[in-house]
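hey team, just a heads up i'm posting the complex here instead of the shared drive bc the drive is being weird again. everything in one block, sequence lines first with there labels, then the predicted structure for the whole assembly after. its two chains so it's a bit long, scroll down
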Amino acid sequence: MTDPHPPRPLPVPELARLSVNQMTVKQLSLPELAKVCVELGIAHVGLWREPVQTYGVEAAARLVRDAGLTVTSLCRGGFLTATGLEERAAALADNRRAVEEAAALGTDTLVLVCGGLPPGDKDLHGARERVADALAELAPYAGQYGVKLAVEPLHPMFAADRCVVSTLAQALDLAERFPAHQVGVTVDTYHLWWDDRAPEQIARAGAAGRLHAFQLADWTTPLPAGVLNGRGQLGDGAIDLREWAGYAAAAGYTGPIEVELFNDELWARDGREVLAETARRFVEHVVR
Amino acid sequence: MTDPHPPRPLPVPELARLSVNQMTVKQLSLPELAKVCVELGIAHVGLWREPVQTYGVEAAARLVRDAGLTVTSLCRGGFLTATGLEERAAALADNRRAVEEAAALGTDTLVLVCGGLPPGDKDLHGARERVADALAELAPYAGQYGVKLAVEPLHPMFAADRCVVSTLAQALDLAERFPAHQVGVTVDTYHLWWDDRAPEQIARAGAAGRLHAFQLADWTTPLPAGVLNGRGQLGDGAIDLREWAGYAAAAGYTGPIEVELFNDELWARDGREVLAETARRFVEHVVR
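-- predicted structure starts here --
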């Protein structure tokens, strides 16, 4: 028999810095996510624009606030590489809305996935410059809302179709054209673990006050077709997550550590079970 | 009706530097490959160890020599990251055989794919150091045979399971511990195109006399499951191949340009047709 009224655990000290990105358990509705986080002693969530819009931004803000959760980031703005004027204007408008949504949700961090090459285009450098041009328009707008843009370098396997910013050095080169409280970077172990320059770049980000978000996922193989949903559960893969948490700590980062997994196998399982497993793995592979 | 005795074309000047890697048309036997290359005016081939071993190394050497073809490289040695003593000794022995095979085939270039992380291992740096240790044993041996080891950085998406050397800078850092005529690098557009540091590293390789092999494939998406056989036909993808050929030329590289495609769709087609298409694409996207 299952106890219909299980005791509500108190927040767990070892989970104090854990934030769960909503996409990790996209099988859960927003109310279910909030409920399970509270039950497991998880105090922070990272939210995703589309499900939040579906639920309603104000309602989502109220829901997480009432549950006592903080929102550590909103994912994601970006996709700023279009060449056409109309597409470009639409992208900028959408990113301004993303800034407003982040502010409404009570988070100061908007993660940006910058976008890939337009169809038929082969000019990575030009696309990166278009990202810089867009940031020049968006950064002051974000600043007005107290929102920091966190440019996320994605793994080089996404350079053509998702994000022309492939290394932390490139992301910082972009961010440093703007004030640190307006534009910084997202460090995600999945995207950066192979890069022997990344540790020194994390230090560079920390020293400049630009380490705005820190995300974890493990690297598992073989990669699935399309390579998007292969982000591994903590501890299942090749990344020494404790080492990377150490780089962030050495760079002065004391903020939330967000677990963001896109994984068909995890999505097919019971969401509460996945979250409980994620919390255990976080303690085992990051905290202890 | 097909002419049973088509005239044999003379070598095509625009194809003078084209080398076709055997894996591009693995549906062709070695005699078929040689015959079609001669018919199309292709003067160079890159060979692959396994099919050459099956055919017989001496017989293969005789076949390509009699066809008037030169062998531009042998792929591949490597897989040097094992931790166990026995595995390690076996890998070194196999690489010494690869050196001997390269010499027997009349090529001075052995491409090395260095190997991934051993199961359960999370130490990329340690694995890269084991590669260096292995090179220290293999480089003088290769030197005795007049064979250059060409360390190939593979795309970072292969860092865990295939090659812990992910950037040209890393490959050169390894190579520069040894004499340039013993150890250099392979530049492959598919693996490096995303890296904004690669052009300067190609210049570094050229200046040091370490640019030992230059390979082409295009980047197409979506990537297939396992991501191994997604190397795109020249011109089908996101890479400005002419630009990359220009970097090699600016670095003083005047050697063969090898097209190496692993692609299930190309393998399913008529091999002669694929080779003719590859030659046309080479002229269109690299030479003109």
